[in-house]
Design a protein that fits this description.
Helices cover 22% and strands 34% of the residues. By secondary structure, the protein is an alpha/beta fold.
């Protein structure tokens, strides 16, 4: 099992702008300019928060884009989700560990990422940086104080994106 964050942030560390929007990211490039397809092909499960789901649910063909993974959205709302997405609630860490031996993609923000980091469950961080300074927004990292070490494994450039791959330091 591997728990992986794969996503993009602004140069100043934000995952989304202050209104939870990603227009700045879409204007920077597309997934086709990265190794997204190869990354996604090795994933079995996706875990995301409701805000992330709300941001992507209206993308044309989104259900087809996530058809080969089991997709879970953490929410307390009871409204139905798109086909292929399952609403869940509870302890993110317990759910993630229950998926052994799956490869799990943590999508989106710090609500999901924070508890996994704090429990030392994140195995890999693949972080793309877009050449944008937002000034304010939703930060990628909000974990409580406490050092967590990762080892830089690879750096790549995809058009305007810099991608860094980190593994948990053992």
């Amino acid at each position: 099992m591997s728990i992986v964050f794969y996503g993009c942030m602004s140069m100043d560390g934000y995952l989304a702008d202050r209104n939870h929007q990603l227009e700045w990211l879409y204007q920077s490039g597309t997934p086709a300019e990265t190794d997204y397809d190869a990354f996604y092909a090795r994933m079995d499960v996706t875990l995301m928060g409701k805000r992330t789901y709300d941001t992507i649910k209206d993308v044309p063909g989104i259900s087809k884009m996530y058809q080969s993974t089991r997709n879970y959205v953490f929410t307390h709302q009871t409204s139905p989700l798109l086909a292929g997405f399952t609403a869940v609630h509870g302890d993110i860490c317990e759910l993630a560990v229950s998926f052994k031996p799956s490869n799990i993609w943590v999508i989106g923000g710090n609500t999901i990422l924070k508890p996994l980091l704090e429990a030392d469950l994140m195995d890999e961080l693949i972080i793309q940086v877009a050449p944008v300074l937002l000034g304010k927004g939703i930060p990628l990292f909000t974990q409580d104080e406490g050092e967590r070490r990762f080892k830089l494994m690879q750096v790549k450039q995809y058009a305007q994106f810099a991608e860094m791959t980190f593994h948990r330091y053992q």
